[in-house]
Amino acid sequence: MRSLMFHGRNNIYLKIEDDDTKNPKKLLDITSKRFKFEHIGYSYRATEIDAALGLIELKEWRNIIKKRQKNANYLTKQLSKFSDFLTLPKIRPETEHGFMLYPIVIKNKKN
Fold first, then answer.
1. How many other C-beta atoms are found inside a 10 Å radius of the C-beta of residue 64?
2. Is the distance from CB of 6 to CB of 16 less than 8 angstroms?
3. What pairs with residue 106 in β-bridges?
4. Does residue 71 contact residue 78 with C-beta atoms inside 8 Å?
5. Residue 105: phi, psi to the nearest 5?
6. What is this structure's pTM?
7. Per-domain residue ranges for the chain?
8. Are strands 105-106 and 86-87 parallel, antiparallel or unpaired?
9. Is the dihedral angle over the CA atoms 59, 62, 67, 72 positive or is it negative?
10. Spacing of C-alpha 110 from chain mean position
């Protein structure tokens, strides 16, 4: 799991301190694998700035979602006149959508 959150990097080197050794053999082993990515991975590490912004956003999440939903409703209303050409998002009954993104699909109409 640690490797997965560090871009799939070899677990021998995941943080800067991992190569703090005076043993030349161990240092060579670590540095030779430093940029070896053994499988697909991601970067799930948050910085201190990300965490600070996230904490502030958490206090306002309901308002943020409401604003996104309002914007999405506006877009849907305005774009609905192009329904012959576009597929707009639909919300299933008894669900809510956070609208982090507003997906639009262009229909492939052949004349």
1. 15
2. no
3. 86
4. no
5. -115, 130
6. 0.55
7. 2-33, 62-106
8. antiparallel
9. positive
10. 35
